[in-house]
Structure prediction request, 67 residues.
Amino acid sequence: MAEGEAEVSEITTTPGDAIGRELLAMVPEAARPQDEDAFLEQLVAERRVVIRLKVDRLYGTALDIDG
Prediction:
């Protein structure tokens, strides 16, 4: 479980704008598209956004560690 605030960016509106570049940077190097221009155009067509999570607290079974 994560608690905190979320921030939603503007929609990417122009291939290669700051939001599109931020989304592209999230793709692991091994999975980067060969045609970045086409990828950035697709992001605009899909009206993609970035959701930034500012986590204040994490908890749950996997994080319950003594010590």
Strands lie at 2-8, 51-58. The first helix runs from residue 18 to 26.
